[in-house]
Amino acid sequence: MTQTSSLVSTPITPDWQSLVRCIRREGTPRRVHHIELLLDAEIQTAVCERFGLLAGLDPFDPFYAQKRLVAVQRFLGYDYVRCGLEGMAWPLNRAEVEDTAVHKRAAGRSFVDEHRGPITTREEFERYPWPDAETASTRSLEWYSENLPEGMCIIASGGFAHFAEHLAWLPGYETLCYLLYDQRDLVKAIADRLTDIFETSLRRMLQFERAKIIWGSDDMGFRSGTLISPDDLREFVLPGHKLMAQMAHAAGRPYLLHSCGNLSAIMDDLLDDVGIDAKHSFEDTIEDVRELKGSYGRRIALLGGIDVDFLCRADEAAIRRRVRDTLEKCHPGGGYCLGTGNSVANYIPVENYLTMLDEGRRFTG
């Protein structure tokens, strides 16, 4: 039975133009804009069931998934859907474990093998079934371009710009560390192939007029530093993101970067050389988004920052205080969108996630 709730009942009219102006720091928006890299499928299902969002949708409709996502995003107050090319398979070595979240995945959780991946030698590099971005499907991009509600846009993203991640996943992180010492030519070959693939991906996504924002996703760090040396990132990873930013800017779109970890050693590179327009993924144990508005928040937009661990453990009153304090510090002048510090994972209590959204809707500045 569908439950009702006063949460997220404050109406929001989607306005992608205001979202883009906010990201570009062109003045204080009239309302708070919300943004997330991911909403786990289990969270989406829980929201749909709670608020009856699937009424009238035919699960046998060939575009059911797209219509469902629009219903979820529109209801939750987002100005966009995230979408990219489809059919871009990257075979990797993985391990499966049981999912212990409340909204668990029946198939368990999947982790990339950190020891050995499918590419550890030049021969394996040549045999690897690289995805073909030139022939990948644009089916969803086409449907959203024709059917998105007025005021919503596409954020071109999803399986895109994983330069550092694929550089670690394809050989395995442990193997990559050895390759950086004794087979740098193989690391360079992988990096060059990634650049070719993502350049083609972005060129094709930019053909869609309703793709107004480009969002690259690429974890480069951990709690106290970068996963490989800053110099190696400058040689093998950052040039790819610089190309993505240049292509996005040439087409009049901002380039957002999601990257977990402590990136303090390369932040100047990201700001001055790569040219990102916004940074996403903040963890309180690394840096509190509220403390950054007066530093590099003057030069790029800050996205999210309501710490995931905090959202998992806090009560309603604490969440509302945290959101209000964050907005009071970060909303003025634009350049801030409200969201989690990483993504809406299936272990975040749905009520806590909705409370964060609700407080953002209530905020008047």
Based on the model shown, name its key terms:
365 residues, globular, alpha/beta, TIM Barrel, 7-stranded parallel β-sheet
Question: How do the strands and helices of this protein lay out in sequence?
Answer:
Elements: H1 16-23, H2 41-51, H3 64-76, E1 80-83, E2 94-97, E3 109-112, H4 122-127, H5 139-147, E4 153-156, H6 163-169, H7 173-182, H8 184-205, E5 211-217, H9 230-236, H10 238-250, E6 255-258, H11 267-274, E7 278-280, E8 301-303, H12 308-313, H13 316-330, E9 336-337, H14 350-362
Parallel strand pairs: 1-4, 4-5, 5-6, 6-7, 7-8, 8-9
Antiparallel strand pairs: 2-3
Helix pairs in contact: 8-10, 10-11, 13-14
Would you mind describing this structure in some detail?
- It is a single chain.
- This protein is an alpha/beta fold and 365 residues long.
- It has one domain: TIM Barrel (Alpha-Beta Barrel), CATH 3.20.20.
- The protein contains 14 helices and nine strands.
- It has helices at 16-23, 41-51, 64-76, 122-127, 139-147, 163-169, 173-182, 184-205, 230-236, 238-250, 267-274, 308-313, 316-330, 350-362; strands at residues 80-83, 94-97, 109-112, 153-156, 211-217, 255-258, 278-280, 301-303, 336-337.
- The strands form two sheets. It has a seven-stranded parallel sheet with strand order 1-4-5-6-7-8-9, with helices on both faces. A two-stranded antiparallel ribbon has the order 2-3.
- β6, α11 and β7 form a beta-alpha-beta unit.
- α13 (316-330) packs across α14.
- The protein is globular.
- The mean pLDDT is 96.
